[in-house]
Design a protein that fits this description.
By secondary structure, this protein is of the alpha+beta class. It contains four helices and four strands; from the N terminus they run ββαααββα. The chain has one domain: Winged helix-like DNA-binding domain superfamily/Winged helix DNA-binding domain (Arc Repressor Mutant, subunit A), CATH 1.10.10.
């Protein structure tokens, strides 16, 4: 998972690396919940093992789910998990701010030494 920290915005954002070949279990959990939600730990596990080439235990998936929940990346209602809407808003806000900064401070690469 890519960790993004910035000085201009008071936020730390963890982003899944979507195109990386060897994803972490936490990244797989996030990707499964991007595609379908809400899911129980068992539902997440079943989807992860269908997409992983390497064997993954239920315990490892459950541990990743708990960690993501403790980091407020996931929310839980009863026994079902989904991505935290506030986390998604932070990602959107971060992306919009970076895009705005790039537009406002356009540097011509030809002018660089």
């Amino acid at each position: 998972m890519l960790l993004v920290e910035t000085r201009n915005m008071d936020v730390t954002i963890k982003l899944p690396t979507l195109n990386q070949k060897d994803k972490t279990i936490a990244e797989m959990v996030v990707i499964m919940l991007i595609e379908e939600w809400p899911l129980s730990p068992k539902g997440i596990y079943n989807r992860v093992i269908r997409t992983q080439a390497k064997p993954v235990s239920f315990q490892a998936v459950h541990k990743a789910i708990k960690k993501l929940h403790s980091e407020n990346i996931l929310t839980k209602k009863e026994k079902y998990y989904k991505l935290n809407p506030e986390w998604l808003k932070q990602i959107t806000s971060f992306g919009n701010q970076v895009a705005k900064d790039y537009e406002e401070n356009e540097v011509n690469l030809k002018d660089l030494p």
